[in-house]
Design a protein that fits this description.
Helix content: 10-25%
Number of strands: 19
Number of helices: 5
CATH topology of the largest domain: Chitinase A, domain 3
Structural class: alpha+beta
Strand content: 25-35%
Distance between the termini: 93 Å
Shape: flat
Number of domains: 2
Length: about 400
């Protein structure tokens, strides 16, 4: 995975980027007073000569990058900082971290038209720094927001590399770069299923090596060995429950269903949200994933065959408990999970036998004292209740 590189900085130890290009959306003049600095450690500092105030969503390119134009079908690596629009105080940032955030552009288009247009319609390129301002709304409690965004890189949302010839030892896969893989036919015969997880690279990428506990961003499809049915997928247009062998027979029915769905979408004016890649830690998945992907590389397309023992074999009642599983996984990104900081307990002093005995006696005396206090309280409560009863009886006699 590519890491961010901040420019080497001469004295003074900051890089100054002012809003000079003017390319943007909305009220760009409201953002003209923003100066963006970076320390030697890559931490952003934002100077605002005038508090940012605008009645509309506004964005501006602070500095134009020298990288390629943005591709609306790719994944962006971005670093960002949340900034107080009146003071410039940085409230949260990931510029100084090892890993940027990932934005899947087709998903961003569905979620925020403003952010998508700010990226795609301002002429921003890889390496650009942008400021994005959104005035407060009732939904946000009236809080204005200012975000500083840097486009570090962009990568395809699928495996890229050199196609590899299959060995023939594992199920045949129809594999084309950039397209969802397909299982040629269901193996069906359990006797041919491997007893241990087996893997094979279908497309060889040139990225970083994958660790067994890495966080991965992937496209994948999973089939059952027994009948070739798709049980899970992170590819657009691939749905669970479809068997590869039945696709030709059901083509007409599928076309009719698709036409009906398209008509409904057009009638409602809605589009089906695009399927983004999936992201998860490998050690949260079935054991066969970590075993099969460890040592592979970012950019690889990997064929995995996982027996029940390393799949869902121990998940009692799971529908895939007895199934050998076939996966084809496109590794788009991978990175080590951040280490969890553990709070160290203070060292306890070692006590001698005499000190332990004294401590024990102290605890016993304390327990006896508390017990005596409880008894005294109980006696006092009993006396109070007796006095109350006597007064009640006297009152009854008077009546």
């Amino acid at each position: 995975m590519r890491k961010k590189h901040h420019a080497a900085l001469a004295a003074p130890a900051v890089l100054l980027l002012a809003a000079c290009s003017g390319d943007g959306l909305g009220d760009t003049s409201a953002l003209s007073g923003i100066d963006l600095h970076f320390t030697d450690e890559g931490v952003p500092e934002v100077l605002i000569s005038n508090p940012v105030e605008a009645d509309e969503e506004s964005s501006v390119i602070l500095s134009q990058g020298d990288g390629e134009e943005l591709d609306p079908e790719q994944i962006l690596h971005v670093s960002s900082a949340t900034v107080d629009p009146s003071s410039g105080a940085v409230q949260q940032e990931n510029f100084s971290e090892d890993l940027p955030s990932l934005l899947f552009l087709p998903m961003i288009e569905q979620q925020s038209e403003f952010i998508y247009d700010s990226l795609m319609e301002t002429g921003a390129t890889v390496g650009s720094d942008l400021a994005l301002y959104e005035p407060g709304t009732p939904e946000t409690g009236g809080v204005d927001s200012l975000i500083i965004l840097r486009i570090d890189d962009q990568v395809p949302a699928y495996a890229t590399g050199e196609e590899q010839e299959q060995s023939g030892d594992l199920p045949e896969i129809t594999s084309v770069e950039g397209e969802a893989p397909e299982l040629a036919e269901a193996p069906g015969d359990d006797e041919d299923a491997p007893e241990e997880t087996a893997s094979e690279v279908l497309i060889a990428g040139d990225g970083e090596e994958i660790g067994a506990t890495d966080q991965v961003v992937v496209r994948y499809t999973g089939w059952k060995w027994s009948d070739g049915e798709v049980f899970d997928s992170a590819w657009p247009g691939v749905t669970a429950g479809a068997a590869e062998d039945d696709e030709a027979d059901e083509a007409d029915e599928d076309d009719e269903a698709d036409d009906a769905d398209d008509s409904e979408d057009e009638a409602e004016g809605e589009e089906t949200p695009p399927a983004p890649p999936a992201s998860f830690p490998l050690d949260n998945l079935v054991a066969g994933w970590a075993e099969g992907l460890e040592g592979k590389h970012v950019g690889d397309r990997v064929l995995l065959v996982i027996p029940p023992e390393e799949g869902y074999g121990e998940s009692e009642g799971h529908e895939l408990q007895d199934e050998t599983l076939i996966f084809v996984v496109d590794v788009i990104e991978a990175a080590p999970m951040p280490e969890q900081t553990q709070q160290e307990m203070p060292e306890q002093p070692e006590l001698s036998e005499e000190e332990l005995e004294e401590l024990q006696e102290m605890l016993e005396e304390q327990g006896a004292a508390e017990s005596g206090a409880d008894d005294a309280d109980a006696e006092g409560d009993a006396e109070d209740e007796a006095e109350d009863d006597a007064e009640d009886d006297a009152g009854d006699d008077d009546e």
